[in-house]
């Protein structure tokens, strides 16, 4: 099915949307992407819930006014906080797809795994509920990674290296996998993999992109002719920030060309992909 004229909106405060946007661009380059970032309001993580809801709803209303056919929220904080009111306003007329960390496929491996996430997410009932739902007792270890998301957002290699080294030092030696529990972390998956050799990384950005396409009734078509990519910064038309373009996937999106697999975080194998748009609770 052609995606000509299809618009996919992604809403996040900053660069955490890039991995999911990259997968969407790779899988269906003929779908127009609207990237709605919020530099005036970032970071969302420490904001009150009501504030986040209003910010996400405002961005979604703008996306709908621009013709969005589906709204994707590639942000754990926004998904947990705003997805229910967002769906109440937009569905069933317009699908909404949220984000869930890839705890389910990591748990399905049967091996011990860690969950790298922000300090707030690591201590949250949300993450604890995911672990209780999918993992066996003692299988998962929360690994707070203070400063890593901020370092990725700022595209500061030294700060990224220090935060990754700190996370690696707190990761148990017996883990076989790491769930990337913040959507910023896949942008530095190479650094994380180098710090934890022989440990498999689990990231949900490919699954979120796939869920968005399924909600639209679209199959992957990586060879399709590319459509456009638009950027809105706190509601105003603009360009991808320089920090975004410092990452290969961000540079590719800024050029509005195709995005190759080599620029993207490796997906969990297809047979283990959780429906990241539907897992807990139907995110």
TrEMBL record:
TM segment ranges: none
PROSITE patterns named among the record's database cross-references: ASP_GLU_RACEMASE_1, ASP_GLU_RACEMASE_2
InterPro entries attached to this UniProt entry: Asp/Glu/hydantoin_racemase, Asp/Glu_race, Asp/Glu_racemase_AS_1, Asp/Glu_racemase_AS_2
SUPFAM superfamilies per the UniProt record, alphabetical: Aspartate/glutamate racemase (SSF53681)
The organism's place on the tree of life at top rank: Bacteria
Entry-linked Pfam families: Asp_Glu_race
Gene3D superfamilies documented for this protein: 3.40.50.1860
Keywords: Isomerase
Protein name: Aspartate/glutamate racemase family protein
Organism annotation: Actinomycetospora endophytica
